Structures are given as C-alpha cells and as structure tokens.
Amino acid sequence: MYILGLSAYYHDSAACLLRDGEIVAAAQEERFTRKKHDEGFPSNAVEFCLRYAGITIDEVDFVAFYDKPLLKFDRLLETYLDYAPRGFRSFLKAMPLWLSEKLWTKDKISEQCNYKGKILFTEHHEAHAASAFFPSPFDEAAVLTMDGVGEWATSSYGYGRGNELHLLKELRFPHSLGLLYSAFTYYTGFKVNSGEYKVMGLAPYGEPRYVQKILDELIELREDGSLRLNMDYFNFCQGLTMTNGSFDKLFGAPPRKPESQITQREMDLACSIQEVTEEAMLRMARHAQKETGAKNLCLAGGVSLNCVGNGRILRERVFENIWIQPAAGDAGGALGAALSVWHQYLERERNVKNLNGADLMKGSFLGPVFSNEEIKNFLDGKDASYKYVENISETVAQILADENIVGWFQGRMEFGPRALGSRSILGDPRSPKMQSEMNLKIKFRESFRPFAPSVLRERVADYFEMDCDSPYMLLVAPVRENLRTGMTDEQEKLFGIDKLNIPRSVIPAVTHVDYSARVQTVRREENPAYYDLLAAFERLTDCPVLVNTSFNVRGEPIVCTPEDAYRCFMRTETDYLVLENFVLDKRKQPQDENAKDERWKTEFQLD
Fold this sequence. Notes:
The chain is α/β, with parallel strands linked by helices. The chain is 36% helix and 18% strand.
C-alpha cells in the first residue's frame, strides 16, 4: 500500500511516500525549483518520490494533506472580522490566493497529480505530532508541538502509545510562541520564517536586558507554559508586518532595516527573546511530563528547530529521552500526514521493539541519489578536471587536515533544513580562521553565525557535555571545560561582535561565543561514508570532529544534483568538491565565466 503525503502553500512545501508504512522517499520542493522555502505545490517532489519508488500515481492508495484549508480559512475570516476595518489591505492581499488555490486544495491535488483516488486531510498540529511520534524510537512518549500557527492551534501536547496518538490540549491563535519569536526576527531586521536561526545565533553576543520588559508588557507566561500575547504591540493579525508603532516605542526605535549594521541593541533583543522562549519551552515540557507521566518526549513544529531550547530541556532532565523530528517545520507535515493515515485512519500496527534505539527516519537521507556513472557523464559534459578515488575517506581526510574547505556530496539528499553529511560543506574545526572564512568566502552570510560540529557518536562525550544521540543537529551542548581556551582580562571586557574572533577551545571553528555547539552525532549504520571520513580524520589528526555546514550559499536551498553542487563550488571559494568517488581541485577547473559574476554574491546579500 502506498500513501503520498503533501504539504504546500505556506512555506517549505514537500512530498513524502510511504510503502506499507515504511518511509521510502521525502523531499522539499525548494531543492528542485531552487527557490528557497518554496511554498508552491510540490509537483517536482511528488515526481521524485514516485520515480524513486518505481511506481505511477495510479498505484497510490491515499494522498494525505497536512492541514485543513477550510478550518484555516475560518480562522482567517474571523480574525479579519475581529479587527475590521483595520487589516483591509492584508485581507485584499490574501484573498486572491485563497479563492484561486487554497480553498480548492482537493481539486488542486487531483489536477496537479492527475490523481483519481482518495484524498484525506489531517489537522496541522496532528500532522506535526504524527511526524514527531510515529518515526521515533519510543513505544510510548509525550508529544509537544510548537510553531507559528496551524488552523487555530499554535502549540499542543499529547501522548502516543503504539499506533495511537492523542492530543490533549492546545494553545490557540493569536497567542503563539512561534509568532512571538518571529516578531523579534522581523524587528531585528531578519526575514520571518527563515531568519529565526540568525536570531538564535546572535543571542549569545547580547545581554538579556529586555527580558523583564517582554514579560511585563508583551507576554503573560503561565506556569504550565501557556501564554497570552498583548496584541496592542503586534500587527500580524491585521497588517502586513509583525509589529507596530507601540512595539517601536516600547523598545525605543523602529525595526532594524535589513542588511544594515547590527548593533548591540539587536544582540540584546535576540538574547532576551531567546531566554524567554527557552523558559516557555521548559514550562511546556514540564507540564506535558506532569500531565502524561511519560519518560520520553517527541518534538515537532518550527519552534522545535530552536536547538538551544531543546538542549535546555535535555540538560534539565525534564524527560529521560528526547527525540526531535529532523524536518520539524512544515516540510515534515507531509510525512506526519501520511503516517497519520497509516497508523490512525487505517489502524496499522507500529513496532519499535527491535530498533535498538534507532528511529524510523533512515538518518533523514530520503532524497535523490546519483550514481558515479551519472556524475561522470555530467563532469565530462562540463570538461571538468577530476580524479576517481577508490578510498575516498583517506584522501578527503588529508585534504581537510591541510585546512582546505570541501564540498561533500554523497548518497541520498537530506530531508529537512539541516545538512547531515550528504550535502555538506566541511572544514577542519581546529582551524581558528575556518569559521570566518566559511561564512564570508563560502556562504556569503553574516560573520557572527556559528557552525556545527559533526562528531563520531562514541566520542561525543569526550568533546561535549552530553552523551546521547543527536543525529539531526537539533541539540546544543556546551564544549567540555577541559577543552576550552581561557580568556584574558582584556578579552573578558569585550562586548558583542568584538568577541567573534577570539578562539574559545581546541575546536574554535565550532565553538560559539558562549562555549556552546550545535552537535551532530554520526553512527556508521546511518551514514557509512560520512562516518568513515570522520574516522579517517581522527586517525590522521586525533580529532573525531569536523565542521559541517549545508552545501549552499546564503539565499539558496541546499544543493540537490551534481549540477547544483558544481555550480556552487565554482562560484564560491570552496577548495575541493567531492562527488561520490570523484575529487575536483578548484585550481584545475576550466575557467567559468559565471565564477566571476558578482551578481551571484549580490543576489544573496540582498536576501
């Protein structure tokens, strides 16, 4: 039996295919269209899933969509009526898309997919909850979902056991932890639904000087984690911005203009909202534990990508074990919808007893894969200079140890927002210059943004204050005390970005300004090629850690095909490109006219 799951029309559209309950394939539409966070119907992702499974759309038994458009439209109309006549411009802007597409989602699915079978709809937070619990390694767990908004729900908690999942309580729009964080994303000059990572990365440079003001004026945060926003300060219900003039007065200035200089004020705002968000996440988790009595927790929804908050829940031992859906945002809703149909609508059994702690996501390596033959044909068509290398791990380990930056393209593409060692840019974490070089010369992004370490699972506790699996880079942990580099009295007095280039540990390229790191643990069972590379690097350097960042530049989705990878390689200062068994040295490549095209950099600077 085949079930096709879909998410679309808001951001990060995606498709997922199940065969008898097993995840066969999943991918975001952005990877094919090259439009970041593409919200359009995921036609290309659907085509890929069917092609990978070797079936046609006629063999699909059910299509599942990740929310209920009529309920969402109901919320939209009620909100506009509540705020009328304010918000008329916003209403006029939203209606054409609703009247032409979103209200007719069922017809659109039939038309776009040429599908004549049964189409089912889950509620948005039900899809998030299903994506969190059903692929997890737990037979029983509490489930917590947190995002901006679905139909009406903005957060929910519940309980899963076997093939059953029940949501117990929900928080409703407009009172939303996700929208509160997005309001500060907008106010600090970053793009909503994509810049939240930047706020999280900026937070350690600031001081929490606005925390009390946020708690006194903007949000009533209760002991159980529920909250109410003071809507006098927000504009997202009736306008085209997240905040309003009252918000500006509260914090003494208008929002920062995108691309303008980041000041200490933005750093302090980021630090403050991060602290409030972590406190809310902790209270929600504690309440879910108290109500369910569970020892395990599953997380999904966009706020669950806040890996600093996840790390707090882990360190404070609210639950014994935590599992976070790697595609926690809207993309994962496609997977949740499909799994909800399999386990709840069809009441099919779920057995995790023989997994030995592993999950059902297959490392999240669920996207396209390319053979050496396909790659060779592409490279020959480009007149590229390359070497075929049998023992790729030993060769690339030496290249990395020589402080070169490597584009690493191996196996199936990752599903979700993180590169996990399949479509990654890699570097030596021991290099003090690696963080700034990768940010400015490779990624074309803000210098303050941290990079994540990949580490052999069996060595994680030697480098970080954690000893559990973190395969999806969704937990932050401190670097161990004995590996940290002490600061001088003069350095201790520095503020903000001035702290950026001070080495913090023996692995400075992945140690953030507060000595934290967003850790990815790697097991051989999930990604043998990447594990072997880390092991080879450890044999060479006695360091089982690599810098791992996504293979893309700012404003562009992660690369999908060899062509995407080659183009990114040629237009950045990446030293080497590894496409399966082929190694390309930048110095030996034919001159690419586009490599000197400054429009490439400018385009992404403006994002």
